[in-house]
Amino acid sequence: LFTHVEAAPGDPILGLTEQFLADPRPNKVNLGVGIYVDEQGKVPLLECVREVETRLARSPAPRSYLPIDGLPAYNRATGKLLFGDDSPLLAAGRVVTAQTIGGSGALRVAADLLRQIFGAQARIAISNPSWGNHHVIFRSAGFELLEYRYYDPASKGIDEAGLLADLEVLQPGTVVLLHGCCHNPTGVDLDANQWHRVVAVLKERRLLPFIDLAYQGFDRGTARDALAVRLLGEAGVENFVVANSYSKSFSLYGERVGALSFVGADRDEAARLLTRIKATIRANYSSPATHGALLVSGVLESDDLRARWEEELGHMRGRIHAMRAALVEKLAARGAPQYGFFVRQAGMFSYSGLTKAQVDRLREEYAIYALTSGRICIAALNEANLDYVADAIAAVSR
Ligand code: PMP
């Protein structure tokens, strides 16, 4: 039955990791990773998470099913974290939130539901470039994929004119996927003024904004990194969607903690949307998992642990900023002042502007692994490898 089945193409990032692990050179550095690692190169276990986990272990509870849309406390806390404690949208009952299997699960459930709602007309515009799984998920849900201009390689910033021009010509009802902050892979984000202009076009053209927020708190803090969500609310945009992930902000990758929120025009519309979200989850995986949701809601519901989380998140963010600044300084000292843009980029990732040939040299001559696109993970830098990486990047840039 399966003799004709061909293998699916391998994941280029995982392939790179395998190559890295097999590399015997002791000074090797993996800048290709997609997760936050600490100064020691390890995935951290946050203290606030450990605390909730200890409490849970002290009074073990049976594990029945969660409701289809997940743990109510988790969804309530998520709504507040995204939309703000005193959000008029929350007060008006216009937001419905469902716990999902990671941010990826939120994207998939939303994609299936929006495809049902919009039918064969379903179209989505995705930034060029974007996280590869965006294309995979929406294509496999049956969407027509469009791209809007976003990154300008010349300035290493936003191609704002191109972005606005591309949004202007989209058909009303087109879904527009926007990274809320810490754009993956470029690290290039819209500033507040640019967000205002983009939101105005989205509203005017009756497009459906879809915010993917996978790095809330990794650039400026939880509230400021939710700017896009807050602006859409303030601008009176009737409908929008938010997919968020706690994988990075709680360092809970394998617990698959995410959520999907839909904003309805009024309470009644939102309630109807929730029934449709639940039907879509039912058809996908029936209901989400308990443990990660208990950890996240346990932290967010306690004033004390919430404060500790903000502190620990601030530490991760601070380390990323420090590594960016140090890399720029060290590169400038080595005759490569052109990399000043690293400090203007946000989050874990940076488009370095390194060409494929330079990335190849880094790997072959220095055992430094980056993606062929030039994307590097800033969190992979630490005091022990920074000088070596700066030496190598300066050398291949000459
Ligand atoms: N969106 C973006 C932009 C991401 O980078 C990621 C994770 N790499 C996700 C969504 C999905 O996160 P999760 O691991 O929670 O599925």
From TrEMBL:
Requisite cofactors = pyridoxal 5'-phosphate
> Subunit info?
Homodimer.
Q: What is this protein called?
A: Aminotransferase
InterPro entries the UniProt entry points to? Aminotransferase_I/II_large (IPR004839), Asp_trans (IPR000796), NHTrfase_class1_PyrdxlP-BS (IPR004838), PyrdxlP-dep_Trfase (IPR015424), PyrdxlP-dep_Trfase_major (IPR015421), PyrdxlP-dep_Trfase_small (IPR015422)
Whether Protease counts among this entry's keywords is no
Query: Which GO terms fall under biological process for this protein?
Result: L-phenylalanine biosynthetic process from chorismate via phenylpyruvate
Q: Which organism is it from?
A: Aerosticca soli
Q: Name one GO cellular component term.
A: cytosol
Mind giving the lineage of the organism this protein is from? Bacteria, Pseudomonadati, Pseudomonadota, Gammaproteobacteria, Lysobacterales
Short name of one Pfam family: Aminotran_1_2
Q: Where is the Aminotransferase class I/classII large domain?
A: 27-393
